[in-house]
Amino acid sequence: ETSFTWVDTDACVADSEGIAQYTDKFYIDTIAGFKCAQDCDIANGLPCMGNPESYLQRFDTAADCCNGGLGWLDTDRCIADTNDVAPVDQGSGEWYVDYTLNEADGQCVKDCAVGGPSCGGLKDQWTVGYATSAECCAYLSWVEPGDCSL
């Protein structure tokens, strides 16, 4: 008897029998843009995205999927993307470089939702954040100190 230990047992049986059996577990959906999806009937709406390939790892919850499979993403944003809802994100308050400013040399702005003289909007999840504007400006060594931050 051959054992496919990496394959979810319920999914393997469903695939073998050619039936649409759902596990209600979560998996990483790279087709929809690196988010978690649930193994359930698409007719139920998001996060249901149907049966994944049997070789894909399954997680019990969306949070487990986000943390275990997409660990580089912010968990709250990942769960919000999974459910197709806007995250309640006020920003981290960190400083980051916005390369669309200062004639593309970059300028340090604050990660915040809206408002404030230094606010640059919400930074992308993969953008490096700095605790202070001085730390951010140290990264932009080619920018004059007076032009470094908003």
Task: Please give a handful of descriptors for the protein shown.
alpha+beta; 11% strand; 150 residues; two-stranded antiparallel sheet
- Terminal residue distance: 66 Å
> Number of helical segments?
4
Rg (CA only): 21 Å
Task: Categorize the overall geometry.
Answer: elongated
Largest sheet: 2 strands, antiparallel
What portion of residues belong to β-strands? 5-15%
The level of helicity is 10-25%
SS-derived structural category? alpha+beta
Which spans have pLDDT < 50 for at least 5 consecutive residues? none
Strand order of the main beta sheet, please?
A: 1-2
Topology pattern, helix = H, strand = E: HEEHHEEH
Number of strands: 4
**Mean pLDDT over the full residue set:** 84
Q: Mind explaining what this structure looks like?
A:
The protein has about 150 residues and is α+β, with helices and mostly antiparallel strands. It has helices at about 10-15, 60-70, 75-80, 135-140, and strands spanning about 25-30, 35-40, 95-100, 105-110. A two-stranded antiparallel ribbon has the order 1-2. Strand 1 (about 25-30) and strand 2 form a beta hairpin. The longest helix is centred in the N-terminal third of the chain and has 9 residues, at about 10-15. The termini are far apart.
